[in-house]
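User: Sorry, what's this?
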Amino acid sequence: MKGHEEKLMDVCWLRPCFKKHSLKSPSYNKPVCSSYTLLLFVFFLLVLAGLIFTGQGKYVKYSYQRTTIAKGENTLDCGAWNHTKSCPINRPVRREPSANPAPTCPEYFRWIHEDLRHWRRTGVTKEMVEKARATAHFRLIILDGKVYVENFRPSIQTRALFTVWGIAQLIRTYPGRLPDLELMFDCDDRPVVQASRFRLPDSAPPPVFRYCSDWRSLDIVFPDWSFWGWAETNIKPWRSVLKDIKEGNKKIKWEDREPYAYWKGNPNVCKWRADLMKCNATPQTDWNTRLYVQDWIAESQQGYKQSNLGNQCTHRYKIYIEGWAWSVSEKYIFACDSPVLLMTLRWYDFFTRGMVPQHHYWPVRDSDKCRSLKFAVDWGNNHKEKAKSIGEAGSRFIHEDLKMEYIYDYMFHLLNEYGKLMKYMPSVPAGAVELCPESVACSARGIWREFMEESLEKGPSESDPCTMQPPYQPQEIQVFVDGKIKMTKQVEAWENQYWDELNKKQPRL
C-alpha cells in the first residue's frame, strides 16, 4: 500500500514537476505580542427555504451566507510573524452569536454520528490515538482554544499543509468554541482501519481521520485539502471555483450542450480508469462518450489554459469515476448542471452518502461501463426533462449544501462531537508547534501563498454553526440504503430491457 502511495507521489501526482515550488513544513512557535484590528462590517443574512422531498431521502435547500469582516480589514500580520516567528496574541476572539436562529444542517451531516459511533461506548483513549499514529502524517491538538500540530512525515504534494491551513481557518471562524481534543490525520488516499478487525464491543479501533472511507472501514472522513486550493493543479479555492462554474453554467443552455458523456482525467492511476478509456468513440462504435486524457505535466508547462473548470460545462452529461481511491474531481463534476453518470462507488467522502440515485445522479455499472454509459446517454436524450432535473438537483446540492460555510460547519461539528468522546486531557507533545494562519502562510510563496490569502477567513463568524440533526436510527439507515439500492436496480432493469430490445434488432455491440 505505502509503496503504491509513494509511486503516486512521483508518477501520478507529479511531485517532481513541482519540486522547485515545494514548501518546507511551517514553523509554529509560542505567541508574543502583536496587534490585530477587528472591524465589524455588513449584516447577517439568513434564509431557510423549504424541503424538497425525494423518493428515498430528503434533499434540503438552504440559502445560507455567513457575514464576516470585509476583505482587507483583518489580514495576515506577516510583519510581526517575520520578526517574532510567533503566533499573534491578539488573535480574533469569539463574538456573541446572532439573535437569528441558525439553519438546520444539511442531511449528510447526520453521518457524523455514524462515523463516531464506534467510540460511543468506550470513548477515545490515549492508547487508541497513539495506535492511530502508525499511518498518520500529523497530530492535531486543541487545548484551551489554541491549536498545535506535530508533523510526522511528508504527505503527497501539499495535502497536509492545506489541510492544516483549513483547520486554521476553522479556528479563525469559530475561535474558542471547540473542545480540547487530540487526533491523528492520514493524508493518503485509501482507508486503513478495517472494520473486520474490530468487531468486539471493546476492541478499541484507532480513530484515524482522512479524506475518504468505505463500508468495510472505520476511518473518519474529513473535508479534503482542495477546498482551500489545489496549487499543484492550479485549481483555486472552493469559493472561487464555485463562482467560476456557476458563470460557466450560463454560457451554454443544457439543451444546447453536446449530447454526450464527458470525462477528462488521468487514466493511469488505476485499472478501472484505463478500462473506461475503452469506451471512447471509434469509427466502428460510438458509446456516446467523449473521453480525454489530462496531461498535467503538459498543462503546467502551458499555464493550465485547457484546465479551467468553469469552461468544462459543455456536455449534457458528466462522468464520475474514482481514481486510486475517491477523487476530489467529484464535487467539480457535480457542479455543472449536467446529470452525473456515477460509476459504481468503492469509497465515499464526507458528503456523497447524502446523495440519491435518480435524483442527484444516474448510476452506471462499473462492470459493464461502455454499454451502461451508452444506455444512460440514450435514456437522457429521450427523457430530457427528467435528465435535466437530475443535473440541476446534483448541481444544487453542490452549490447550496456544499458551500464553504457548510464545510466549516461540518468540520466544527465533527471535531466537536469527537472532542466529547475524549477520555483524557490532551497535552502538547515536545514536537508540536502552535498553529495560526501566519505560521503557515507567511513563509509560503507563489501560488501557494496566493491561494492561502484568497481562502483566508477574515474574522470570526457572526452566526452560529448550523444546527445538527439527531443521529440516524438503525432502521432509518436501512430504509435509506435499501431505497438507494432499489433506485439503482431499477436503472439496471431499464438498461437490461434496453439492450434486450436492441439486440433483437441488431447483433450485440
User: Anything to note?
Assistant: Residues 1-65, 67-73 have pLDDT under 50 and may be disordered. Residues 66 and 103 are 11 Å apart (CA to CA). DSSP finds 15 helices and 13 strands in the chain. The first strand starts at residue 45 and ends at 53.
